[in-house]
Write a structure and sequence with these properties.
The protein is an all-alpha fold. It contains three helices and no strands.
Length: about 55
Amino acid sequence: MKGYPLERLYEELAFLAYHLHWGYQELLELDHAERRRWCREISRINQRLAEEERRRG
């Protein structure tokens, strides 16, 4: 059985910690699906904000 890539886990944890200001232990307690869901939602928000900024010019 192959585990989740450690490098990817660190990327997700850093991304969530940066945007949500949650602690390491709190982030580790999230299961894989929930952690990925938070990453997707934050990414959508960032994309929407960047697009609005581009339109404003």
